Amino acid sequence: MPDNAFANSNDQENLPEIVGKFPVSEDQITRFNRDGHLKLEGVLDQSEIAAYRPALQKVVQTFSNEQHSMEQKVAGAGKNWMFVNNMWTLHPAARRFVLSPRLGQLAADLMGVDAVRLFRDQSYFKGPGGANTPWHQDAYFMPLDTDQILTMWIPLTDITPELAPMDYVTGSHKVGYINPSNGDDASMDDFERRMEAEGHPVFNYRTMNAGDIAVHSAWTMHSSRTNTAQKMREALVIVFFAGGARVVADPPLRADADPQQFFARIIRKQNRDTSLPGLKPGDVASGDMVPLVFER
Predict the structure, then answer these.
(1) pLDDT digits (tens, 9 = 90+) for 254-283
(2) For labelling alongside 250, which of 9, 58, 143, 200 has CA 20 to 30 A away?
(3) Chain centre distance of CA 268
(4) Calpha distance 129→226 (Å, rounded)
(5) Mean pLDDT calculated for residue range 22-35
């Protein structure tokens, strides 16, 4: 864990441990596998959110201007977003939250695997007027040989439609790579019409309570629109993958490839350098930066 102002913080001493299994039904697992996304209510209770939220806010406020997260690198910092990558390395309370056994077991149960590792976490704080998040698939940026990768989207406050909850293309995780959209409204509208015409409806849960979690397959196309509320949308994501996965090389890149594929290569390199340092294609994806979170 890197040295920082919080390294010796005792803030976590009075925080509850997030333990105990959150049960998921066979029907929920079936829907997740079918649709590529799922909303789960009450994974965290209100007291747990209230206990952890101040520390997580503190990390975001302290580090958001210093980091070079993948979204900052590609999209720039001028869109009223506050991104902090790998919060778990920056504050003991964030570490306890992100690496909690309850979330790790939930990821394992949904993916049907025996062990899960953390790939990364990141704040997704979007201020008033915060710009669109373009349509994309997380897995395309991750140099792993498995499709068993899951992203949790965790709001720290209640979410209304004005606070830009996530949009998903239902069933898109079964299609393979799909060219992402640009971030302007017209491009995103065109993309959504194309997906609908191809039989993949766009879906939004619209409202969530603090403590609810939306999960999606890393191959599910997702996005969010501008935050039109007059307050910050506070959310973070945690990305888990199946234990035993291996590192893979970048796919071949033609000279006439779409510019977004060149951006993707940059982001994959950043992900390798950050989460998989020192590993080469064929190596098991393990190490200090991808800790084991749950194992049966």
Answers:
(1) 887 777 788 888 889 999 999 999 999 999
(2) 200
(3) 15
(4) 6
(5) 98
Angstrom distance (rounded) from CA 144 to CA 141: 9
**pLDDT at site 66:** 65
Please state whether beta strands 133-136 and 149-155 pair in parallel, antiparallel, or not at all (unpaired): unpaired
Q: Which residues of 121-140 are buried (b: 16+ CB within 10 A; e: fewer)?
A: bbbbbbbeebbbbbbbbbbb
Q: What is the pLDDT of residue 247?
A: 97
What stretch of H or E contains 47?
helix 46-63
Q: How far apart are CA 159 and CA 163, in angstroms?
A: 6
Structure token digits, residue 254: 């033609």
Average pLDDT, the chain: 91
Residues 5, 86: contact at Cβ < 8 Å?
Answer: no
Beta strand segments in 67-185, E: 81-82, 115-123, 125-126, 133-136, 149-155, 167-169
Residue-level pLDDT at 10:
53
Structure tokens at 123: 């704040």
What is the value of pTM for the model shown? Answer: 0.91
Cβ 152 vs Cβ 214: under 8 Å: yes
- On the CB side of 65, CA atoms within 13 Å amount to 3
Which residues lie closer than 8 Å to 141 by C-beta, 6 or more apart? 70, 264, 267, 268, 271
Separation in Å, CA 10 to CA 26, 49, 123: 40, 18, 22
pLDDT confidence of residue 73: 45
Task: For residues 145-152, give the mean pLDDT.
Answer: 97
Distance, CA of 10 to CA of 92 (rounded, Å): 8
Higher pLDDT, 227 or 257: 227
- Better-predicted residue by pLDDT, 192 or 263: 192
In whole angstroms, give the CA distance from residue 37 to residue 151: 9
